[in-house]
């Protein structure tokens, strides 16, 4: 069911990308910024309508005539983790890092697919016009990757129901590794590019079916919404500033320059804050 719920995330990319491009020509008619403005209004309306149709079930609700087995009920009660207790477990970080690396291939393709595919098609001689090669690559991405992304969410959920999410995740990871190596050889052919993007999109979509299942299996379903939200941060993680040694870039609203390096006040509640650091900081502030 998770696969069906998130499949729209993949299928929707095909619709909205093509409406902005070849189908609706929104960017050509209204420009990029106005197209984003149109989409923001449409999405706000659609999300609001969708939210009105959703409601929390009452406590203890279950489908009529269905009674969970005693063993399952006891297991669910024992695996009820709050976000605080979940992030204290090493399993969370193992799963989080797995999410980072497995989603990395799909996120990377979103950024480089058009450039690499266009150059590979030109280098192989399949196209002689740069604009035509770029258009063919964009169409391949919108059609093959987006469609297979939606099918992957449903397909990997179906596979996980049959062989388990651990085996499914292992198969998906190994397959994705071989596909990334094969990309170097398949990118020069338009058919090969379609096949590669379809298979990679299918695997990328599987992340959003398998990791919610893994999070629910390890940490329970009661707090799954926020727990999986923390897990989902694996594909949103960006290290925008360096804080390894306590330094960060701070913007200044003055005439002395846009940026400066500052030393933040140490937090004595931080276990990494040593006594020596505390003594040095006290001496500096006293002088």
Sketch the major β-sheet.
2 strands, antiparallel
Order of helices and strands: HHHHHHHHHHEEH
Average of pLDDT: 76
Radius of gyration: 24 Å
Query: Domains counted in the coordinates: how many?
Result: 2
Structural class: mainly alpha
Strand content: under 5%
Low-confidence stretches: 238-282
What is the overall silhouette?
globular
C-alpha end-to-end distance: 63 Å
Helix amount = 55-70%
Strand order of the largest sheet: 1-2
Please give the count of helices.
11
Number of strands: 2
Structural features, described:
The chain is an all-alpha fold and 287 residues long. The chain has 2 domains: 2-52 and 77-235, no CATH class; 248-286, no CATH class. It has helices at 2-20, 26-30, 32-52, 70-78, 83-86, 90-124, 130-163, 165-186, 190-219, 224-232, 275-286, and strands spanning 248-251, 259-262. A two-stranded antiparallel sheet has the order 1-2. A hairpin with a 7-residue loop joins strand 1 and strand 2 (259-262). Helix 6 runs antiparallel to helix 9, helix 7 (130-163) packs parallel to helix 9 and helix 9 packs across helix 10 (224-232). The protein is globular. The protein starts with a helix and ends with a helix. Mean pLDDT is 76; it is low at 238-282.
Helix and strand arrangement:
Blueprint: H1 2-20, H2 26-30, H3 32-52, H4 70-78, H5 83-86, H6 90-124, H7 130-163, H8 165-186, H9 190-219, H10 224-232, E1 248-251, E2 259-262, H11 275-286
Antiparallel strand pairs: 1-2
Helix pairs in contact: 1-7, 1-9, 6-7, 6-9, 7-8, 7-9, 8-9, 9-10
Summarize this structure as a short list of keywords or feature phrases.
single chain; 287 residues; mainly alpha; two-stranded antiparallel ribbon; 2 strands
